[in-house]
Amino acid sequence: MHVFVNAAASADGKLSTRRREQVRISGPEDFARVDRLRAGADAVLVGVGTVLADDPHLTVDDSSLRAARTDRDDPATPARVVLDSTGRTPTDARILDNAATTYAVVSSAATRSRRQALADAGAEVVVAGDDRVALDDAVSALATRGIETLMIEGGGEVIYSFFAAGLVDELSVYVGSVIVGGRDAPTLADGDGFVGSFPDLSLEDVRAVDDGVLLEYTVTGRSGANG
Ligand SMILES: NC(=O)C1=CN([C@@H]2O[C@H](COP(=O)(O)OP(=O)(O)OC[C@H]3O[C@@H](n4cnc5c(N)ncnc54)[C@H](OP(=O)(O)O)[C@@H]3O)[C@@H](O)[C@H]2O)C=CC1
Ligand SMILES: Nc1nc(O)c(N)c(N[C@@H]2O[C@H](COP(=O)(O)O)[C@@H](O)[C@H]2O)n1
């Protein structure tokens, strides 16, 4: 499976505020680019933290991009995936509407009633892992459902986990011209953080987008060279 991460960060590396309230960092050109990225994916994945904070829809909005997908017999908008170990996704979350297939990936820690509630709300429930969603198992389960290209949109906990598992092939970061600040505000990669061995990136392209900068990387492996 090809896995790519896209996120928008402030100039000081934050994805949102310390209150975990969504910040509009991208401008119109970048949001259009994100729409194209979504249109090129089989599924768009977020963590339950993003669902609870933002209630995202995660669909392709541009009608010509949707038409191009249906012309090649793909659904108009990619599948949506939420990593949600205990099934905390609200049953009225926007990702559970009928705009696309939605996979709720839970762990064995999710109660039968939460799994049933998510299924009743329209999700296809996938179990991967014991206490927390195990990414290798989740990715395998998605692959068996025909997902070959997976876009990770965040947030910082989930992005870190994908890097820690060595599952990321490409990263694009839009760096907006704003400072958000806050030691507890989410960054691109939160989690426990790396010590001694760091994912290495190769910078493939830099360009001005809106009033910020788009950085595009491929992931080349792990080394301690940056430490
Ligand atoms: N600027 C941008 O581009 C973006 C910004 N955001 C912002 O990020 C914030 C949310 O980020 P964050 O709080 O980090 O939440 P995440 O969206 O990264 O979700 C984290 C949660 O996902 C669940 N999860 C399940 N399995 C895993 C796993 N293997 N690894 C990691 N997480 C797992 C965990 O909850 P559990 O254990 O209960 O399952 C965890 O707490 C919001 O403020 C949002 O606005 C989000 C996306 C993009
Ligand atoms: N690319 C980008 N730029 C920003 O400035 C952002 N705040 C985000 N946030 C992400 O977009 C999701 C919202 O998606 P919908 O418009 O509801 O489909 C949000 O949940 C974050 O993942 N992204």
Describe what is shown at a glance.
Residues 2-215 form the Bacterial bifunctional deaminase-reductase C-terminal domain. The protein is of the alpha/beta class and 227 residues long.
Descriptive account of the structure:
There is one protein chain. With 227 residues, the chain is an alpha/beta fold. The protein has a single domain (2-191), classed as 3-Layer(aba) Sandwich (Dihydrofolate Reductase, subunit A), CATH 3.40.430.10. It has six helices and nine strands. The protein has helices spanning 28-39, 48-54, 63-71, 112-120, 135-144, 156-164; strands at residues 2-9, 43-47, 79-83, 102-106, 124-127, 149-154, 170-175, 198-209, 212-223. A nine-stranded mixed beta sheet has the order 5-4-3-2-6-1-7-9-8, with helices on both faces. A hairpin with a 2-residue loop joins strand 8 (198-209) and strand 9 (212-223). The longest helix has 12 residues, at 28-39. The radius of gyration is 17 Å and the shape is globular. The model has no long low-confidence stretch (mean pLDDT 97). It binds NADPH dihydro-nicotinamide-adenine-dinucleotide phosphate and ligand LIKH6CAM. Residues 7-8, 15-16, 20, 22, 25, 46-50, 53-54, 83-86, 88, 132-133, 135, 153-158, 161, 186, 190 line the site of NADPH dihydro-nicotinamide-adenine-dinucleotide phosphate (NDP).
Summarize the amount of helix as a percent range.
Answer: 10-25%
Could you give the order of strands across the largest sheet?
5-4-3-2-6-1-7-9-8
What's the structural domain tally?
1
Ligands, ions, cofactors: NADPH dihydro-nicotinamide-adenine-dinucleotide phosphate, the ligand Nc1nc(O)c(N)c(N[C@@H]2O[C@H](COP(=O)(O)O)[C@@H](O)[C@H]2O)n1
Domain Bacterial bifunctional deaminase-reductase C-terminal: 2-215
GO molecular function, one term: 5-amino-6-(5-phosphoribosylamino)uracil reductase activity
Pfam family, one: RibD_C
InterPro entries: DHFR-like_dom_sf, Rib_reduct_arc, RibD_C, RibDG_C, Riboflavin_Biosynth_HTPR
